[in-house]
Amino acid sequence: TAPRTEPDCLFCRIVAGGLPADVVATSERAIAFRDINPQAPVHVLVVPRDHHGDIAQLAAADPALLADVVALADEVAGEQADGQFRLIFNSGPRAGQSVFHVHGHVIAGAELGWTPA
Ligand code: 5GP
Ligand code: ZN
């Protein structure tokens, strides 16, 4: 089947290779690259290759793909840090989502505080 893609989506463009990114890991259905504005020693975005807007839409449309995203996050944390990680999905602008192609933030490589709001 054809990939789900949106012409004006930043992460669809990175997935397609049309914009550069510091890619640290890939799988058949997902890609992981460093955030341009890192908030931790390891701050990697894990992105399904198919376009879905947010985590709830992804989970409803393709739960296996959400599981692939989580598996790639775990792989990145194992390669880039000690295997321990926080995985954040901002959902909606008031929660801090600014790119509307679902992505998990893998935050790792330090003792993490807990001040989510
Ligand atoms: P959100 O705010 O949607 O949860 O996360 C979007 C993230 O994408 C932000 O942390 C931001 O720094 C990152 N970002 C925005 N544009 C780019 C880009 O062109 N390349 C990379 N690697 N990260 C980006
Ligand atoms: Zn997209």
TrEMBL record:
Location of the HIT domain: 10-117
Motif (Histidine triad motif) on chain: 101-105
First and last residue of the signal peptide: none
MF GO annotations: catalytic activity
Alphabetical list of Pfam families matching this protein: HIT (PF01230)
Coiled coil spans: none
Catalytic residues of the enzyme: 103
Protein name, UniProt field: HIT domain-containing protein
